[in-house]
Amino acid sequence: SSDVSGDLTNVLITEAEIHAKIAELARRIEADYAGQDVLLVGVLKGAVMVMADLARELRLPITMDWMAVSSYGTSTQSSGVVRILKDLDSELEGRTVLIVEDIIDSGLTLSWLLGNLRSRGPASVEVCALLRKPDAVRIELDVKYVGFDIPNDFVIGYGLDYAEKYRNLKDIAVLAPHVYS
Ligand code: PRP
Ligand code: MN
Ligand code: MG
What we know:
By secondary structure, this protein is α/β, with parallel strands linked by helices. The protein has a single domain (about 15-150), classed as Rossmann fold (3-Layer(aba) Sandwich), CATH 3.40.50.2020. Helices cover about 25% and strands about 30% of the residues. The protein has four helices and nine strands. A six-stranded mixed beta sheet has the order 4-3-2-5-6-7, sandwiched between helices. It is globular and about 50 Å long. The structure holds 1-O-pyrophosphono-5-O-phosphono-alpha-D-ribofuranose, manganese (II) ion (MN) and magnesium ion (MG). The site of magnesium ion has 3 residues, from loops. It holds the Pfam family Pribosyltran.
């Protein structure tokens, strides 16, 4: 069936709340990066929706590039093992880089990514993540732009998946335990 409402416990963040928050983050980013050419690095696949909305909201000259890494596969637990599935097309030497992520869960993906991108000689690397789970974080990271701190529930929608499903939901919702248990 195409109706997935039975797979959700509740909507956590509505489409309207997401867009209001992205506009707020965009205003801060514009102020902080005024006069600079920013390279937005989206982390596939979860960040596609945030990237599409944030990039269009920003009144700044930006370019976009993408990296595909994976630490989850189809499990609900982070493995901590990060694989590069697709590398950037751009050189980072001297660039002003802003990583765009949908969620920081354990922080393991981002921790690895920050180390990897910083080793390429950029002028700066900062992070914009729509969601963060403070109770799940295993590595403390300095994240400049965070949309929402959320409880340690399995969330889906707006790019976030469970076993590659639900990315196209407009809201962010809590996945019902019966789906994954
Ligand atoms: C998810 C999410 C983040 C990462 C966060 O990606 O999009 O990139 O996990 O988890 P962590 O903080 O515990 O490392 P995933 O590996 O599921 O790939 P996807 O973006 O293709 O869904
Ligand atoms: Mn991801
Ligand atoms: Mg995923």
